Amino acid sequence: MGAAENKKVMQEVFAAWARGEGGAFFNVLADDVRWTVIGSCPVSRTYTSRQAFLDGAVKPLSEKLAGPIHPTVRNILAEGDMVVVQWDGTATTKAGKPYNNRYCWVMRMENGKVTEGTAYIDTELVSELWRS
Known about the structure:
Layout: H1 3-18, E1 29-37, E2 45-47, H2 50-63, E3 70-79, E4 82-92, E5 98-110, E6 113-120, H3 123-131
Parallel strand pairs: 1-6
Antiparallel strand pairs: 1-2, 3-4, 4-5, 5-6
């Protein structure tokens, strides 16, 4: 698949997620994806499988929120096998506070699956969830 096809996959995945299909993005992660969350917050590290990423980052973060994160895409860029998605994620914490994070995910895709990704996020905002 080329850049245009990879961009279309991400457009469709984020559109489905915005409609409430929360697993849409995670379904395009390769089983052996290498996913890095930058920074030094509680979920910052490199995960070496989809399951490790779900268990180590997605699930613990979700447990701090009152509901799912709602994504709003600001930009999708694609070149070759690389796709960059800039998006805003909004939710409410279990303490009733707004959770408004900005994300930039840089991903390598192969055959319609994300094989590698780096998540650039406001790690201080994530850390606050663990303190509240």
